[in-house]
Amino acid sequence: MIKNCREYLIEAWGLGSFMVAAGIVVTVLESSTYSGVTAIPNPFIRRAVIGIAMGLTAIAIIYSPWGKRSGAHINPAVTITFFRLGKIHLTDALGYIVAQFIGGWIGILLVVALFGESFTSPTVNYVVTVPGSGGWLIAAIAEFILSFSLMFVVLIVSNHHKIAAFTGIFSGILVAIFITFEAPLSGMSINPARTFASALPASIWTDFWLYYFVPPLGMLTAAEIYLRQFTKPKVICSKFCHNDETPS
Asked: How far is 156 from 39, CA to CA, in rounded Å?
């Protein structure tokens, strides 16, 4: 476990960076302190801008030298799924998960320090993820579908030798689409550590169990279907960016 501490720190950095980017983009576009709402009055278009920004952030993290080294899971649900697939040891999976929770939380604290009330006010509210007007059931169904879809696409693309190098691109595109179209239903988390990172400083735990259990369930379901339905299924490794530069 100790020998892979660098990878754990990278996972903390990865989700922390993602949360900092999310906090900055949402604050600029949604807070009354800035002119985002005035410049882009249509909420759907603002979500699309946020989605594109976060999709690009995910891609940048995945293809960065550090992301290539750790595999850029930055999500406990992803790590749990690759553990189920036998591509990461239990001690390393635990190290990744702990680092992801801590890194995401630190990322949110950095945004609080940078923007203060602009970030903590109700219009942004620490970018918490809570069910929309449809309630927890709709949010749970949406989170399951998104989590399932992301992992299924990752497994299909990453195990096709001609397009495996584009796994991170596919992932980033899905993040952008999910935020644009699904965010009003559940806040678009698909990541227990991402939801925890906002919930802890905000003290908002509305239906937190949903974001804790449903994303891993969705991704594990995708993995089970992949293993059972595809002829001679294979899982090359647990990295979103397969490369020969860093060890698996």
From this structure: 40
